[in-house]
Amino acid sequence: MADATTTAPSPGKTTYARLFTIPGARAFTLGNLIARFPQGMFSISAVIMISGARDSYALAGAVTATGLVANAVVGPWTARLVDRFGQARIAVPATVISACGSLALLLCVRVGTPDWTLFAAYLASAATPNTGGMSRARWAHLLKDDPDALHTANSFEQAADEFCYMLGPVIAAFLCGSLFPEAGTLVSAVLMVTGVLIFAAQRATEPPAHARTETTRTPLRARGMPPLLIVFLATGSVFGSLEVVTVAFADAQGHKVWAGGILALQAAGSGAAGLVYGALKPTGPAARRHPLLVAAMAVLMTLPLLAAWLTGSLFALGGALLVAGMATAPTMVTGMTLVQERTPAGQLNEGMTLAVTGILGGIACGSATGGAAVEHWGPTAAYTVPVTAAALALLLSLYGYARTSR
């Protein structure tokens, strides 16, 4: 079997088409996209299913939040096992465990078991492997000698993330509303298992496993990683607060049903910018570009606040979110590039999962802070929360750059 690394795109400008000439790249990407798409479906499917059966959004939110926190805690450990034993050997059983948790939640809701069983069942979803991180690890392995091609691959992966989180909730809501309340959860579980099986079957592109030794150190202790992960935490706060405040703003306008579409504009702007950014050849080291891109995100994040404050129009807000999202993907792409550069060899899945954990933790904090701001200040003034979170991310990125450039 030919070594996939020998057919990587030649140095120079790399297009997306040339990227997928690598043997096995199309197959593992297809499997990963199928497996990743449900990540945008699980939460809203659970909320619709639980709230419809138990008539409690508070219970639905608490159950999904528990799953989110559990995944943030267990995720890095699962990724460590992936690095140590290989993607296929760990991702497949972990996915089956996670799918069983989702199906157990479905059954508990269906037969009317006590509320505590919903939390217990959904805890199994913490085993969900970081499929996006595993895909990025494959690109990093295949393109280790071509940083420009790796930049393009990372940009594609970020755009894929935005695509999944933009369409996932829409598809989930359609399934739950047009078929039956449990349809979103059921379809999500089937897609996740199917995608991971396809992805894991592509062994030729799988990075080699790295056994841990006494000298192996956690990526948390790698130079420059702690401040970078804190930036991911602050960036996640931007996303979490922006979502809650936008839903509240749409509700105040009497158009709560449009909230998902308005938020999709932010993801669309981010995904489009990510694809354009990936087609360009970046200049200068990623460590220097990162604070500049975070600064652009902080500046553009003021647009939703200004649109809500000056116009009070949901349509103007949608346009502002579309433009504001354009700095998100380039910032995330560059941040993930730094994670790849700073993570010790053989621990890439763990390093990128730590970054995702930071984002998830930030989303949880941002959601709580944004919700509290809406309650006390109203939805328009609450847009200061994502602005503040973006400004904090900028200060932290400048601090991290100053620390690592010494």
UniProtKB/TrEMBL annotation:
The protein, known as = MFS transporter
